[in-house]
Design goal:
This protein is an alpha/beta fold. It contains twelve helices and twelve strands.
């Protein structure tokens, strides 16, 4: 960025850094939690045919109420809840959609935040939450998570009551840690404030077994909103489609801050087509979970600490220099994320070949530079990446360990 101090910019934006991650052309890109698998040909063909039927009508504005998309999302979400053993009474009026979940969150904070209002988050968490907050002129406050990055209902209740925020952000599974929270934590936040409680479930489809969504708490809680995305499990990051589920009166409020016709005709058509092929698109989720678990197990075997993950990525620690490890991997054609947590780095699950490449690179680095580990393991690191295996489940809230417990095992 240039020297913004020379411009009449808002004082509260001076010194802030925009969101961003290195976008480098390397063979193995495992840094921004994308779905590693491309869209299957059957979905691509259907999308192409669907869009072809709408080109001649692009002289007209799109349906600003995205009616068909709302109906498709209700159908999909009913299936999500049924697979978790839950029944949630959803209707199209409870659905909001926008250009990625970031715009959904932005709409919510625009409507319920702003100057003189306070937003609370539990960090480390998704770095866009404070950026969206400050972008509206609201005050961002945060409370540190426990050392294992988990949250409990008692702590959340106390901190929410102490701050009394206008908006609370809860992220489950949490980015960048991968840890999940229980419904009791969400309920504790809701019952101890008079503001909006946002539950960011961007990675929820990667939880195994399927966990109950915060959607199950919506009945009787008009200040609760659940945010999801089609960027991750649906492999549609380039489509830019996020959505929220909440009481109709909350959804109706978001119309006050959206831009006119904010969802293009093409976006709506492609999203509906993707939802019609949900089973096909979600078919790779278990493969990514296998890759995640294989990464977790091997990283722990060679001496890193590994945090439980219900997402499509792994946070691992015991790194003497995350920046150095990042560069060493990049030199071998593998891009991961240095997310700014001391002694830690994050890697997202890749295809089988990408996972193999990452684990081989890790072994090479440790063989050449064993001091990349902050503390050496008692036994020598393995020099060969393992084949795909299945890990055993660990209880929620367990501390990271070298035995690589990973929740969410299929």
């Amino acid at each position: 960025m240039g020297n913004i101090e020379s411009l009449p910019v808002r004082a509260d934006l001076v010194g802030l850094k925009p969101y961003g991650a290195p976008h480098l052309d390397v063979p193995v890109q495992l840094n921004v939690n994308e779905n590693a698998y491309p869209l299957p040909d059957v979905v691509v063909d259907s999308m192409r045919a669907a869009v072809n039927n709408h080109f001649s009508g692009l002289n007209r504005y799109p349906d600003r109420e995205f009616t068909a998309l709302r109906e498709h999302l209700v159908t999909y979400l009913n299936g999500v809840n049924e697979r978790a053993g839950d029944t949630v009474a959803l209707e199209p009026g409870m659905i909001w959609a926008a250009n990625g979940s970031n715009e959904v969150l932005s709409h919510i904070v625009q409507a319920f935040g702003g100057p003189g209002r306070t937003v609370l988050g539990f960090t480390p968490s998704y770095s866009m939450h404070p950026l969206i907050t400050t972008g509206t002129g609201a005050e961002w406050r945060h409370v540190d998570r426990r050392d294992d990055f988990t949250l409990d209902a008692e702590t959340v209740a106390a901190e929410v009551a102490r701050v009394d925020p206008d908006i609370v952000f809860l992220c489950t599974p949490n980015n960048p840690t991968g840890t999940s929270i229980g419904l009791d934590v969400i309920d504790a936040a809701y019952e101890n404030c008079s503001g909006i409680v946002i539950v960011d479930e961007a990675y929820a489809e990667f939880s195994r077994p399927a966990a109950s969504s915060a959607m199950t708490l919506l009945d009787g809680r008009p200040r609760l909103v659940v945010s999801r995305t089609m960027s991750k499990a649906f492999a549609c990051a380039g489509l830019r489609l996020g959505y929220a589920i909440a009481a109709p009166e909350l959804i109706d409020t978001l119309r006050l801050v959206r831009l006119p016709y904010h969802l293009s005709e093409v976006t709506q058509v492609l999203a509906c087509t993707a939802l019609e092929h949900a089973d096909v698109l979600l078919g790779n989720v278990d493969r990514l979970i296998d890759s995640r678990n294989r990464m977790s197990e091997h990283l722990a075997e060679v001496g890193f600490t590994v945090h439980d993950s219900d997402s499509n990525f792994v946070l691992f620690g015991n790194i003497s220099s995350p920046a150095r490890l990042w560069q060493e991997l990049l030199d071998r054609g593998v891009l991961i994320r240095d997310i700014g947590i001391a002694g830690h780095a994050r890697v997202n699950a890749g295809t089988e070949d990408e996972t193999d490449a990452f684990l081989r690179a890790i072994d090479e680095i440790l063989a050449e530079s064993p001091d990349i580990l902050a503390e050496r393991p008692t036994s020598p690191p393995s020099s060969t990446a393992p084949s795909s295996t299945t890990s055993s489940s660990a209880p929620s809230g367990s501390a990271p360990s070298s035995s690589a417990p990973t929740k969410g095992t299929p």
